[in-house]
Write a structure and sequence with these properties.
Blueprint lengths: L3 E4 L1 H12 L17 E3 L5 E5 L25 E7 L1 E9 L1 H4 L11 H26 L20 H10 L8 E4 L6 H13 L3 H4 L6 E5 L1 H13 L7 E2 L5 E5 L2 E5 L3 H8 L7 E6 L3 E4 L6 E3 L2 E3 L1 E6 L4 E14 L5 E6 L3
Parallel strand pairs: 2-12, 6-17, 7-10
Antiparallel strand pairs: 1-15, 3-4, 5-16, 7-11, 8-9, 9-10, 11-17, 12-16, 13-14, 15-16
Helix pairs in contact: 5-7
């Protein structure tokens, strides 16, 4: 019997993409700052980004008429977000896998099949994360074959465009040095970002914005607090993840940044700090997209190929990123390739 496993695009979105951008993973572990993305699940090609803050300036004087002007409280912004067609695929030859000392495990093969599925979906999640931040379709492949960073354009490439276009003023950007950081460096980077907010960002409530930083800056700032006798400011979330604040604004670390920055900077430590509105990063996908099959459109396929005697796994999706309000950002980063 030719065993197959198929998942439709909406189910695949609910199973993989949506949980990946949720606040908590099913096991309760903190999902890094990727949980700060706003997700648009209905972008089949190109669409305007919804203004996450809504509108204001709707209050008007009443006159001696019955004419009422209805103003929108939310609409699409002038900026658009696009998605690209992407896929992931792998195959598993059981005869190769169970050679040597593993041959005794052949009778438990269905269990190992489940492991391959788990590894496959986790790899897709890691690749979504690396591209959502560092993706650049013009960048060469990782020479070491570790990171996926050129499948679709990510947040850092979007920021580079807005900086070059002058959308983000020069005083709201900085090029950080490479190399190890001192405790004072960690504090100074946060202080620089805080002092260079534009007037709109500066006067937003603190709980509506956050610092997004590399682990290097987070650790240096934590060391600064300890040396200054302010270790009581280091709090812990319920899952044990450290929580820091600067000027009562959350300092959130994305743990994938440091190793990717390190690789892009030719083996030298690099750093990044973004102060902006929470939810300002936008990830776009299409929950109805997949591969056409005789049974309908499917986003995740698993099947046994008798001609190659292998199990094959493939997923299909659309992906892209955007920034709702790039102008309300303070952006500092080491120059990388």
């Amino acid at each position: 019997m030719n065993e197959r496993f198929k998942v439709g695009p909406q189910s695949y979105y609910e199973m993989l993409v949506k949980p990946h951008f949720a606040d908590l993973l099913p096991d309760g572990s903190f999902n890094g700052t990727l949980s700060e993305f706003t997700v648009m699940s209905d972008v089949s090609s190109k669409k305007k980004i919804v203004e996450i803050l809504g509108k204001q300036n709707i209050l008007k004087r009443r006159d001696a008429s019955c004419n009422i002007v209805f103003s929108p409280v939310g609409k699409a912004s002038i900026r658009q977000i696009e998605t690209d067609e992407v896929y992931g695929a792998t195959k598993h030859c059981e005869n190769e896998f169970y050679k040597g000392c593993l041959e005794d495990f052949r009778n438990k093969d269905p269990k190992f099949r489940d492991y391959i599925m788990d590894f496959f979906l986790k790899a897709i999640k890691v690749d979504i994360t690396s591209n959502a931040y560092f993706g650049d379709i013009d960048r060469p492949n990782d020479g070491n074959g570790v990171w996926s960073w050129n499948v679709f354009d990510g947040i850092f490439k979007q920021y580079a465009k807005y900086i070059n276009d002058g959308v983000i003023p020069a005083n709201q950007t900085s090029a950080f040095n490479s190399g190890e950081l001192t405790p004072s460096d960690g504090k100074n980077y946060l202080d620089w970002a805080y002092k260079n907010q534009d007037i709109f960002l500066k006067h937003l409530p603190n709980n509506m914005k956050a610092f997004y930083v590399s682990q290097s800056i987070f650790d240096a700032y934590e060391d600064f607090l300890i040396l200054a006798g302010l270790a009581n400011n280091i709090q812990y979330m319920q899952n044990g993840f450290k929580s820091l604040k600067y000027k009562d604004i959350d300092v959130l670390v994305e743990t994938t940044w440091d190793p990717i920055l390190f690789a892009l900077n030719n083996g030298v430590a690099a750093h990044a700090c973004i102060l902006t509105i929470r939810g300002n990063f936008v990830f776009a996908t299409d929950s109805s997209y997949g591969e056409a099959t005789p049974e309908g459109v499917k986003a995740l396929l698993v099947w046994y190929s008798y001609d190659e005697l292998t199990w094959k796994y493939a997923n299909f999706m659309r992906a892209g990123t955007g920034i709702a309000y790039p102008e309300h950002t303070v952006f500092g980063m080491t120059n990388i390739a």
